[in-house]
């Protein structure tokens, strides 16, 4: 079955003036448990909001997430304690958008912007795990989060089709057994890394001007080529991080295949 614990959704439209505004989801204790799909806190098509001070546990045999923001502008996802356990896919905090192609083949994007994900305690256990994920966004900030992952494959902070993202001062510890294959069905595939910056849709310009700085990332994994930071686009800044992974320490722990 499927469980939605807290579900606050505005109009599914392309005009943010029709979105719900001033949403506050604060100081709740949430326990979502389902055989198939467990959703903790879900908010969508919304502007200017707070999701803060919540204690969220989400458990599922297939898919579990703690906090999801869909098409959200100017939200603070802060000071939450998140624990997610799944036999398959486990997600901590997600901010996900869409892009819109009009009748003249013009594209309007992104729909996730000016959000802050900060000061959260995120613990995940699963086959494939993503602690923080942002898809189709601009000017979002991920900072001062403590992230712990135990999984076959795990991603600390993954961003796809995003620009001007600040990822700083996060502590990320991942233990990956890599016993199963990579999940390529997500915008950010599940190949283990602390921070991943990637394109996922050819219609959207390549991710750029993202800044990864002052993070502390430690990864224990089976494969020797696992990096602490993995970047597959150009014009991003990776600096002043403490990085340790099977691929090496410091600069040797960065896999940058951008041009």
Summarize the structure in short.
The chain is built from no helices and 25 strands.
Instruction: Work out the strand percent.
Output: over 45%
Low-confidence stretches are none
Structural class: mainly beta
Give the N-terminus to C-terminus distance in angstroms: 45 Å
The biggest sheet, with number of strands, parallel, antiparallel or mixed sense and barrel status, is: 23 strands, mixed
Radius of gyration: 17 Å
Query: What proportion of the residues is helical, as a percent range?
Result: under 10%
Mean pLDDT over all positions: 91
The strand count comes to 25
Q: Given the C-alpha coordinates, what overall shape results?
A: globular
The helix tally amounts to 0
Secondary-structure element sequence? EEEEEEEEEEEEEEEEEEEEEEEEE
Keywords:
mainly beta, 259 residues, 62% strand, two-stranded antiparallel ribbon
Secondary structure elements and their pairing?
Layout: E1 2-9, E2 20-26, E3 29-34, E4 37-52, E5 55-60, E6 63-78, E7 81-86, E8 89-96, E9 100-101, E10 107-108, E11 112-113, E12 116-118, E13 121-138, E14 141-143, E15 146-163, E16 166-168, E17 171-176, E18 193-198, E19 211-213, E20 216-221, E21 229-231, E22 237-239, E23 242-245, E24 248-249, E25 254-256
Parallel strand pairs: 1-4, 2-4, 3-5, 4-6, 5-7, 6-8, 6-12, 7-13, 8-13, 11-13, 12-14, 13-15, 14-16, 15-17, 15-18, 16-19, 17-20, 18-21, 19-22, 20-23, 21-25
Antiparallel strand pairs: 9-10, 23-24
Your description of this structure?
- With 259 residues, the chain is an all-beta fold.
- 0% of the residues lie in helices and 62% in strands.
- The protein contains no helices and 25 strands.
- 48% of the residues are buried.
- The model has no long low-confidence stretch (mean pLDDT 91).
């Amino acid at each position: 079955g499927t469980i939605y614990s807290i579900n606050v959704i505005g109009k599914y439209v392309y005009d943010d003036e029709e979105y719900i505004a001033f949403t506050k989801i604060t100081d709740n204790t949430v326990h979502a448990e389902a055989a198939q799909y467990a959703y903790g806190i879900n908010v969508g098509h919304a502007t200017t909001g707070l999701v803060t001070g919540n204690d969220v546990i989400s458990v599922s045999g297939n898919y579990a997430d703690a906090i999801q923001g869909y098409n959200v502008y100017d939200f603070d996802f802060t000071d939450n304690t998140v624990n997610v356990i799944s036999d398959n896919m486990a997600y901590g905090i997600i901010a996900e958008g869409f892009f819109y192609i009009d009748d003249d083949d013009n594209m309007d994007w992104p729909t996730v912007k000016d959000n802050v994900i900060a000061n959260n305690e995120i613990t995940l256990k699963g086959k494939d795990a993503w602690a923080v994920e942002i898809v189709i966004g601009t000017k979002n900030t991920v900072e001062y989060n403590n992230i712990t992952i135990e999984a076959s494959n795990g991603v600390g902070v993954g961003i796809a089709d995003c620009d001007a993202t600040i990822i700083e001062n996060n502590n990320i510890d991942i233990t990956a057994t890599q016993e199963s294959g990579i999940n390529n069905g997500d915008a950010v595939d599940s190949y283990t890394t602390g921070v991943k910056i990637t394109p996922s849709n050819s219609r959207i310009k390549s991710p750029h001007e993202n800044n990864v700085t002052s993070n502390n990332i430690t990864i224990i994994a089976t494969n020797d080529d696992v990096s602490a930071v993995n970047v597959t686009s150009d014009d991003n800044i990776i600096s002043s991080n403490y990085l340790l992974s099977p691929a090496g320490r410091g600069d040797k722990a960065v896999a940058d295949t951008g041009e």
